[in-house]
């Protein structure tokens, strides 16, 4: 049975969805700037999760969103002298193109913050009615002290919460710290603001903290099976989502929470201030293929940090090319007179599926899944060169490899 590490409980648990259709939300990019390799690592393991659930026979209803209205997008557009929509649309198109090249399967419909304004207003109105949210100088804030269990995903120590009321008006704040106070839901428009909507709760725009809940509830409802994202979201953002959604619905937001670790460069997290951000095209310029980038990012389990280096990408890229060459050779029909009951070939063929599923069922252990395939393919390749694999066995081997690759997307 599939075992997933649930961040909420801090342990691996058997995956049991509410029904046969898995509802899965994966935090998409904030399109004020281009996604970097660290972002794509998250999108790739989420893609593998969706594909493996399909492999296991589940129907998956997945939503990935685009954040196009946060403070950062508005500030960036102003700095570049562009309308916000023009800035974000260009970055969105770039994301779609790169996701396709990295073989990330995106849903047909991808909601954006700007397409879920009415739902955001509806949620805020409900929160005000229930006493969780309040108005202040044209803005609307959420009071975390009104929500029992606030910070439960992060396991926040609420005994340190200040006794006096403090308000935090920005969508996001730098660093891994908690804003010990009320967080904003609705930015009331001030003189000179260009990104505004007329709404029954006042003229303004939704904050980042209400945008995901709006897109989730509008697309998937109020209860999910899996909620995914990067590890940074453990600070503030996902607990804000929980507080908003569960305050409105009274139901558990998600049964399972999954968070992926960072890609580091030079041992440090990528950031603009350090100037160490790496984009996919930086690796392409060094001669790597899109398939090699995807493969490299899957050679570390999603909950483990990767310290990216060109040498490491080169080593794994060469390994992939060797694996693909052997895979192509194995697709050449073998000797039809070879007995199909050869025990070594039969055992290795069965191991292709067995080792793959054992690794993947262990919290998406893609490194072990890849290593198991590589070792088995190596041994089968030697037998194939010696003419010990029959035509029917060749067909079965290719069928099993293609099935595994329907998840990994690196072999063919």
Structural features, described:
Strands 5, 6, 7, 8 and 9 form a five-stranded mixed sheet that branches. 42% of the residues are buried. The protein is α/β, with parallel strands linked by helices and 412 residues long. The longest helix has 21 residues, at 310-330. It contains twelve helices and 14 strands. The protein is 43% helix and 15% strand. A hairpin with a 2-residue loop joins β5 (133-136) and β6 (139-142).
Give the helices and strands, then pairings.
Layout: E1 3-6, E2 11-14, E3 21-26, H1 37-55, E4 59-64, H2 71-80, H3 84-101, H4 117-130, E5 133-136, E6 139-142, E7 167-168, E8 182-188, E9 204-206, H5 208-219, E10 224-230, H6 237-249, E11 254-260, E12 263-265, E13 268-269, H7 280-285, H8 290-298, E14 306-308, H9 310-330, H10 343-361, H11 366-385, H12 391-408
Listing every helix as H and every strand as E from the N terminus to the C terminus, the arrangement reads EEEHEHHHEEEEEHEHEEEHHEHHHH
* Class computed from helices, strands and strand pairing: alpha/beta
Q: What fraction, in percent, of the residue positions are helical?
A: 40-55%
Q: How many strands, what sense, and barrel or not for the largest sheet?
A: 5 strands, mixed
Note poorly predicted spans. Answer: none
- Tell me the Rg in angstroms: 24 Å
CA distance, first residue to last residue? 27 Å
Number of helices: 12
Q: What's the count of strands?
A: 14
Q: Give the DSSP E fraction (strand runs of 2 or more residues).
A: 15-25%
Global outline? elongated
Task: Write down the overall mean pLDDT.
Answer: 95
């Amino acid at each position: 049975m599939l075992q997933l590490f649930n961040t909420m409980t801090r342990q691996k648990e058997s995956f049991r969805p509410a029904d046969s259709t898995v509802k899965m939300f994966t935090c998409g990019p904030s399109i004020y700037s281009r996604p970097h390799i660290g972002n794509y690592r998250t999108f790739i393991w989420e893609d593998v999760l969706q594909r493996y659930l399909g492999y296991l026979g589940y129907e998956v209803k997945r939503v990935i969103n685009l954040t196009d209205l946060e403070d950062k997008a508005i500030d960036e557009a102003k700095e570049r002298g562009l309308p916000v929509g023009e800035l974000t649309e260009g970055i969105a198109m770039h994301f779609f193109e790169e996701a396709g090249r990295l073989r990330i399967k995106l849903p047909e419909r991808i909601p954006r913050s700007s397409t879920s304004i009415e739902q955001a207003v509806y949620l805020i109105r409900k929160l005000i009615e229930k006493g969780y949210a309040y108005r202040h100088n044209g803005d609307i804030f959420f009071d975390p002290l009104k929500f029992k269990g606030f910070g439960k995903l992060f396991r926040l120590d609420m005994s340190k919460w200040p006794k006096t009321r403090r308000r935090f008006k920005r969508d996001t704040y730098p660093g891994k710290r908690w804003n010990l106070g009320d967080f904003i839901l609705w930015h009331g428009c001030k003189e000179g603001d260009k990104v505004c909507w007329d709404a029954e709760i006042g003229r303004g725009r939704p904050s980042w903290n209400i945008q995901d809940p709006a897109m989730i509830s509008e697309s998937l409802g109020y209860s999910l099976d899996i909620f995914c994202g990067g590890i940074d979201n453990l600070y503030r953002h996902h607990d804000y989502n929980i507080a908003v959604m569960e305050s409105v619905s009274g139901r558990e937001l998600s049964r399972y929470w999954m968070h992926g670790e960072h890609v580091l460069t030079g041992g440090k997290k990528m950031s603009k201030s350090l100037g160490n951000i790496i984009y996919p095209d930086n690796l392409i310029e060094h001669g790597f293929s899109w398939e090699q980038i995807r493969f490299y990012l899957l050679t570390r389990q999603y909950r483990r940090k990767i310290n990216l280096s060109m040498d490491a990408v080169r080593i794994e890229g060469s390994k992939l090319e060797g694996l693909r060459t052997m895979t192509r050779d194995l697709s050449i029909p073998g000797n039809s007179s070879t007995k199909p009951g050869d025990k070594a070939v039969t055992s290795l063929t069965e191991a292709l599926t067995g080792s793959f599923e054992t690794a993947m069922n262990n919290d998406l252990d893609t490194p072990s899944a890849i290593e198991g395939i590589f070792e088995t393919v190596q041994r089968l390749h030697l037998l194939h060169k010696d003419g010990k694999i029959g035509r029917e066995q060749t067909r079965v081997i290719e069928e099993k490899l293609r099935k595994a690759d329907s998840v990994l997307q690196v072999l063919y």
